[in-house]
Amino acid sequence: MEKKLPDNWVETTLGDIAEWSSGGTPRRGVKEYYSGDIPWIKTGDLNDGIIHEASEYISEEGLNNSSAKLFPIGSVAIAMYGATIGKTGLFAINAATNQACGVAKPYFEMNVFIHYLLKSQKQAFIDKGKGGAQPNISQTVIKAHKIGLPPLLEQKRIVTKLDGLFAHLEEVKIRLEKVSQLLKDFRQAVLTKAVTGKLTKKKGSWERTTLGEVAIITMGQSPPGTSYNTTGDGVPLINGPVEFGGIDPFSRTKKVKYTTEPTKMCEENDLLICVRGSTTGRLNIAGFDACIGRGVASIQSTEVEQKYINIFMRLQYAKILSEGTGSTFPSISGSYIKSFVIDMPIDSTEQKKIVLHVETLFSKAEAIEEKYSTVKQKADKLPQAILAKAFRGELVEQFSYDGDANELLKEIQKLKSELKKKSK
Fold this sequence. Notes:
Layout: E1 10-13, H1 14-17, E2 18-22, E3 38-41, E4 49-51, E5 57-58, H2 60-64, E6 70-71, E7 76-79, E8 88-91, E9 95-97, E10 101-106, H3 111-120, H4 122-128, H5 139-144, E11 146-149, H6 152-194, E12 206-210, H7 211-214, E13 215-219, E14 228-229, E15 235-238, E16 257-259, E17 265-266, E18 271-274, E19 283-285, E20 290-292, E21 296-301, H8 306-314, H9 317-323, H10 334-338, E22 341-345, H11 348-390, H12 405-423
Parallel strand pairs: 3-9, 4-8, 15-20
Antiparallel strand pairs: 1-11, 2-10, 3-5, 6-9, 7-8, 7-10, 12-22, 13-21, 14-16, 15-16, 17-20, 18-19, 18-21
Helix pairs in contact: 6-11
């Protein structure tokens, strides 16, 4: 340990305070091995919380004919392989595991404490697993990992405090998630009111027309694939779903590809619509003059505010996608877009007022979203900060009557020795 431990704490290793093991995988070719009711936990099931169920089950026969083992309630697992290194789980069920899970059976009443301790060390285990094509840590690495161990009474206070803090933090996260949905609903409501004349105080005369009457529709045509590049040579190319999404009627495309042999073109500020595939109906504004591929069409207003068309069309995504032809690969045609019905104020001044109201309200929503994002980032970092504080001995008060962790360690060693004799 690099820093001085609090009074009555002792430096030890994970191997000294728990019995460690791992599981195994019954042979996949034997169907009977996977027809039982024994939960079989893999690293994908580890959720850094309490494990109540497994994604797969094995039979007694599968357990007995493999290196899989059955671990009791209260066991603590940690992922040892690949991208999941450091993920943990506290068993609320008796369960077996595969070989990618290291499993601790703690001594005394230390199960929850060790689970929190392992969570606090996640980055350290990730760092130890770096290197090689498939990063991993072994049981040897886990057992040798050094920790600071407080007395048992202090452990219990740490666990109680952490339980309370994490429960509160979970409530905060739930509220934050509601903010995101509220903003989404708010934007949707703004767009709906905008195109039904309910956003401005005065509603003048409206008319129902088609896009073909008020805009020029240009269907894209993909240039030769050999002309694509990402080096910036040639004309910007917009060619598919990667460019589209969101409900913001003023969001713009970004340059991702270029072509040296442009075909059909759009102009900056044209409204672009995806016309093929699962994202048919999604929109964005051309942020620059560009070549448009066959998955895209441009809508260039001639007789109405371009931004008003953007606002109206944002609400039509679900309708357009449902009306696209083709069950597995929906698409829409130029004639469909031209015939698409649009409701709009006759007076261009009223159109501009609607656009201004939408821009103002969306700007306020964006400001709230930025604050929400900042708070969420802090909330996401808070658990590790709290855990680090707990295992530096700074989360709860220390008392002399807690005793000395050295005595606890001696008791553990004595218990290990007795268990060893019994097993013999």
